[in-house]
Design the sequence.
């Protein structure tokens, strides 16, 4: 269990704490939830950097890192839908893309093919985490410019999410071949 994998596990462990504080519906609870979400988001960048720089990329990390990201983003989106900050359709597009790409990866893995994270996938993750942080801020501070920034960032991340999903499927359509 190397440091990168421990950071991935930490990201997963932080999710229940995030959910507890966001559900308190208080300013302090939301601030703590923002800090937890931001810290968990930072571990995503950090664990990948550590694993690659130390040549410690593992099968566990390849599986758990994207799963941890999906759990973190999904829990935040569902919470923000419940709070009325993120439209349900936006959350569903993002969550559906995550399920679809995970399914694509599973099918490819069954054929012995590993689908690495793409440039679009990395941009998608950053855009989602940024939009979520902005949306969380809107819960406690919502002058007009924050409202606009929230919806603009959600729109951008939704478009990038769609492009990223299409990119994965177009580049890896052979994994879904009906032959065999």
Sequence:
């Amino acid at each position: 269990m190397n440091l990168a994998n421990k950071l991935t596990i930490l990201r997963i462990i932080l999710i229940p704490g995030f959910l507890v504080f966001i559900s308190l519906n208080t300013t302090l609870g939301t601030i703590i939830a923002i800090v937890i979400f931001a810290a968990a988001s930072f571990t995503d960048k950090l664990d990948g950097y550590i694993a690659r720089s130390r040549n410690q990329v593992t099968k566990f990390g390849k599986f758990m890192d994207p799963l941890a990201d999906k759990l973190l983003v999904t829990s935040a989106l569902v919470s923000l839908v419940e709070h009325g900050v993120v439209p349900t359709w936006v959350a569903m597009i993002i969550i559906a893309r995550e399920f679809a790409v995970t399914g694509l990866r599973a099918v490819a893995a069954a054929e012995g093919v590993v689908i690495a994270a793409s440039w679009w996938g990395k941009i998608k993750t950053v855009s989602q985490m940024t939009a979520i942080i902005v949306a969380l801020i809107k819960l406690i501070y919502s002058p007009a410019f924050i409202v606009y920034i929230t919806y603009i960032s959600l729109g951008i991340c939704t478009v990038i999410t769609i492009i990223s999903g299409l990119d994965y499927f177009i580049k890896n359509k052979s994994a879904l071949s009906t032959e065999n």
